[in-house]
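ok so dumb question maybe but i'm new to this and my supervisor (M.) told me to 'just get the structure for Glucose-6-phosphate 1-dehydrogenase' and walked off. so i did the thing. is this what she meant?? sequence i used:
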Amino acid sequence: KKTPNQMLIIFGASGDLTSRKLIPAIYNLFKGGHLSKNFCVLGVSRSNMTDEEFRTKAILESPFLQKENSKEDPQTMQAFAEQFHYQDLGSDYDHSYDLLANRIASLNEQHGTSGNYIFYLSTPPSLYEVIAKNLSEAGLSKEKDGFRRLIVEKPFGYDLESAKTLNDALHHYFDEKQVYRIDHYLGKETVQNLLVTRFSNSIFEPLWNRRYIHHVEITNAETVGVEKRGGYYDKSGALRDMFQSHLLQIVSLLVMEPPISSDAEEIRDEKVKALKSLRIMKSEEEIVKNTLRGQYVKTEIDGKTVKGYREEEGVNPESTTETYAAIKFFVDNWRWKGVPFYVRTGKAMPTKVTEAVIHFKTPHHEVFMSQDAYRKDNKLIIRIQPDEGILIKFGVKVPGLGFHVEQANMEFYYSDLESAQVMDAYERLLLDAMQGDTTLYARADEVEAAWRFVDPILKCWENNPAVNTYGYSVGTWGPRNSDELIEDSFGWRNPGD
Ligand code: BG6
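this is what came out, is it supposed to look like this??
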């Protein structure tokens, strides 16, 4: 189904996200035939550029579209580029909105975009409110003769209070149903598949509760350090950057009750309830016992010295910002009472992987030779990335004498599907926004519920910078002490080990 006629107005058009993610996503949607003929993009930013210069930089000479540029016939690329325009908004994103409104009106005429506009805020978050206010004052936020949508990038707030302030500010100018808060993990095929795995298979759902699940483990690891984003990251840290957003989104999908339909609001209502049922850690004592953080340190690897976090560009040499976080928590509701959840995330780890592991309880009565507990429990491993798929581990008899039990694997890989066209997360999410589907976007109350859980941990960590903070070598699975956080006999599952 093609998207309706519309214009996408990108604030922060000369930024990294636009060239790295948004334009390739738009290009794929264009190539896939998803976009209406009456579509155009207006890039907005603080630099001075002509339409031609913007097209050359963002498309024709973009390193992120290089492959397309060499294989595509130049006319197709040129036709794609001609749908792009540029508007300089001056130095502070606070002026020239009349000019912008006029430009939008004339492009609307030129491209026949039917007065349907999406504003994509790919700017520093400090500008979100200013832009929303100015759009509203320029008469661009009210849906009178077409739709008006606002896509907002993460980080969405810095803590609970700032998230609420931002939500209130945006609600001043836009209705909640016009606001699309992007969390690119929700655009990942395998994250969406969590819902399908749970709610369209009667072999899993009956077991999905405290009676049969022993614990749940989620690992998110990246091999890279903070790269060129030291300045941003040092004010953020793993808890804000990954846990509050992406990982709690995964948690909400694992934990939620079945929605009554696949309607966006029904699904989001259940996610909010799930997030609200996470047990908030109240005392510092509880937080210290159930959380742990780490920072990667300078490491010798094969005779070469690899930088530690504090040596990275833009990072305070005495920074206590965590690049690794591990958290144990409980979900206080009927389904999950007493089941521990263990979630960890880190940079500079041995491999890039995100997976959720559901550990089922071991059989009540042991009939056969016991081995160590870890190898005995049934596990459902949901591989979010890479090698997207699902793995089930179950016991089989070792051939030969006696009844020795060993674990066997049953595996499914997305890449084995014939229709394995996995859309990039941004492509999928943009397409949804263009079609007005909010299912995979975070709602205001959802974001606030996630902050409500994270806030006390942030505060406790800020007040006690040295407590539970450990160094770890680059290329390892984080501080050794993190093993103490997880059940003795189980330990973390380190994929690839
Ligand atoms: C971003 C974080 O939201 O997600 C980055 O800001 C992180 O620090 C990235 O590297 C990870 O995304 P992905 O899709 O590569 O797992």
